[in-house]
Each structure stands twice: as structure tokens, then as C-alpha cells.
Amino acid sequence: MQDFTSHGKIILSGEHSVVYGYPALVCPVDQEVKVVIQKGEQKKTSPFLLNILSIFQNEQEVSFDDLLIVIESTLPLGSGLGSSAATASAVFQALYCFFKIKYTKKHLLFLVQESEKFAHGNPSGVDAVAVVYPSIIEFQKTDEQIEWDIIATGKALPPFLLLQSGIPSETTREMVEYVKTFSRKEEILPRIGKITQKMIKKLKEKHLDLGLITQNERLLEELGVVGQKALSMIHQIESKGGVAKIVGAGGRENGSGVIIAFHPTNISILREVALQNEWEII
What we know:
Blueprint: E1 3-13, E2 24-39, H1 47-59, E3 67-73, H2 83-98, H3 105-120, H4 126-132, E4 136-142, E5 145-152, E6 161-164, H5 172-180, H6 185-204, H7 210-223, H8 228-239, E7 243-246, E8 258-262, H9 267-277, E9 280-281
Antiparallel strand pairs: 1-2, 2-3, 2-4, 4-5, 6-8, 6-9, 7-8
């Protein structure tokens, strides 16, 4: 019995702006989804899993009778780490193996993107690409086409912490709709796009400019997608010399999902801050 895994992702730069054709910079995280398929009775099936199975069955003449799909995940749901895409990727891989059907990564990407429409409505494709090709990726969606380029491995980044600011009460789809109606989006999103381009250039030169992380975060705050709890956490991190930003669609009412935090000299300083405040380290 073989298990299949798919890692989550974070967006280093380009949240929300990527939906409007600007580039995003994405990298993998260690947290993952693990899937095992075996003979047995599936007692509980979520609508999301049913959609994945429907997509697969529309392409392959297979039966899911007496099929037990076991999913284990260290990825928090709805927090900006690509949990839905990672789950779809791991399930599709496991299904292909179980039914002894050959597949390509290109087609796996297509299926994951199809499953993301159920989760997010009109997904940019960034999560699907990031979980199928787990590297540091430059991503852009233009004219309904998606383009990406692998520019480095995840090891190119300095040490960082992932901190939970709280699962947003709004879905990613709701946050995207909120930004769509935001009066200043045409001013802010191009600026996020320019920051992303600068960050991509720096990473190709094997350097992450932490100042750009802060600039991106400030624009997300102006966009109104960073709630008060996340703001408080980020300000405390900055008071200790660190930099931090949200890594997903964000949230306004309660939590804003996962925050990525860097320190230019000693990441253990931020770990101590997290422990003192009883923040959850992902």
C-alpha cells in the first residue's frame, strides 16, 4: 500500500494581483497532504472529495465501489497554504496509481486546476502549479493562459516561520470578490505587481530583499485584506527587527490565515516572540 503526498505553498508576493494578470512568486512549504487508497467502505465523503472523484471518473471508466480514500494533512484549511490544491493533487496521484493508469504532470496540473474551480470559483491557477511543481516559481496568468517558470529551489530562501493568525471567516472566493469591488484596487494592484517583479529579479540573483516583503504587506493592508489580529502580530514581529506578511487571500473579520516571518540575523528571536505570545507555529 503506497501513500502519495503533495506539499502546500506560500505566495511570497502577488496575492490578489495575480488574479488580474500580474506576476506572483510562489514557493513550497514542508507541510503536506498524504493520501492512501485501499479496499474498503468510504463512510464519510465531503463535497470537495466527491468533486475530485467526479472529475476523475469523467475521464476514466472506473468504479469507486469498495474504495476507501484516507487523507491526512498537516496543512491548515483556508489559511493560504493551498490545502485544496494539495489535496486534489495527492488524491489524483493515488487514483492513477491504484487503477494503474499512466499520467503526465501536465495532465495532473489540468485536473487539479479543474478541482480548484469547485473550491475557488475562478482560480488563477497559481495553487495548482505550485503543488504539482514544488519549487520557487514565477507565475502569471494572461488571457486565460497560465505561464510559469521555475527559478529556484525552496532552499534558496533564508529560514522563516509560518504563524497562524487564525482561519479567516471569509472564503478565498469571498475575499477575491471583496477586492473586485474595492475602490482603490486599480491603484494598489499594479504596485504589488511591480514589487513582485523586483523580488523575482532579486531571487534570480540568489537574494531575497526582505524590504520588499514589508512593502508587499503594507499594500495588502491598504487593500483591506489584513485583519487586526494579523496586523498586531506583524507589528510585534517588526518591533523585534523582523519582517512578515500574510501569504494568502487574507481575512477581514477574524483571522487572516498564515503569516510568513523572516529575521535578517536570527530567526530564533521570532520563535521566542511566538512562544511568548502563544502563537501557533505551523
